[in-house]
Amino acid sequence: MNSKVALLVAGLVVALVLVIGRQGAVAPQAMNTPSQAVVAGPVAAPVAFPQTQYPQATNVAMPVEPDPAAAAGATAATESPLPNFVPRKLTVFEGHWQGMDGRLMTEELARKLNYPRGLQGVLLGEVTLNAAFSGLLAGDVIVRIDDTPVTDMESFKAASRIVANRSEARISVLRKDNRPGAPVVRKLTVVLREAEGGLGFAQLEGAPMILAGDPRPHGYRGACTDCHPIGQGFELTPDPDLISLPPPTITRDMVARNVSPHEVRGPCEACHVIK
Q1: pLDDT of the residue at 109
Q2: How many CB atoms lie within 10 A of CB 125?
């Protein structure tokens, strides 16, 4: 009797194990069925969009530096620097005649140097040679050559042409009194003389060439190309007369006390290192 019971129990255990094994094998399929039932349709495969390879930005005004990775034999692509840009028509910046170094008197200069507003003529920034012997001074404003009025650089050159073959000419200028307060100018006339070969006529120049992207040392005066060629090679650098060397370092005290060897050209930090 006991053996029969033992055999019956063993059979039940074996059947239970088989049933449990079948349910375990089917469970994953049964679990996946609800997920598959909620899908509205076939899932679209992801679309692979082509990625554009953009070139690295370079300054087209300067040659591109060679890629060190290309040293194994491949030649790096380079761009030639832009040619100098020289406008056909430039605003005249200064004129030279018999030791005079002059430039157009503008409203900006009149304000900065405390001259009367509306003054027209050619402002002398430097005098040497016959101009100095005649009695002209830096700061004088030429308003007439003999009987010809001078109001700008072109009329300055035209008036000098009239007396080019003569040995002397009368130069009428306005000279500012340097006393503080409202500007006071007086008119005087000097005689410019040249003993040999005649006085000749004034030579005009444009503003110096600048590099593309150079900071502007003065207030806005219109497009840079109205006055300046853009590029390099038209001016000796450094200047042998130490005129266009890099501006020296200045102190904060000099800036605070407004100590400057030149007229106002903009913020000091635009050109100078300040320590």
Answers
A1: 92
A2: 14
Can you spell out the DSSP letters for 61-117?
TSPPPPPGGGGGSPPPP--PPPPPB--SS--EEEEEETTEEEEE--HHHHHHHTPPT
Band of pLDDT at residue 38, cut at 50, 70 and 90: very low
d(CA 70, CA 170) in angstroms, rounded, equals 70
Residue with tokens 């830096």: 138
Strands (E), the chain: 92-97, 100-104, 122-127, 141-145, 148-149, 168-177, 184-193, 203-206
CA distance 105 to 53: 54
Amino acid identity, position 36: Q
**Bond before 238 cis per omega within 30 degrees:** yes
- Output b/e per residue, 181-195; b: 16+ Cβ within 10 A: eeeeeeeeebebebe
Q: Report the top-level CATH class of 92-206.
A: mainly beta
For the chain, the structural domain boundaries read 92-206
pLDDT of residue 241 exceeding 70: no
For 226, phi and psi rounded to 5 degrees?
A: -70, -25
Q: Structure pTM?
A: 0.57
- Tell which phi-psi region holds residue 217, choosing left (phi > 0), alpha (psi between -120 and 50) or beta: alpha
pLDDT at position 177: 87
% of the chain surpassing 70 pLDDT: 67
Q: Quote the CA–CA distance of 199 and 253 in Å, as a whole number.
A: 47
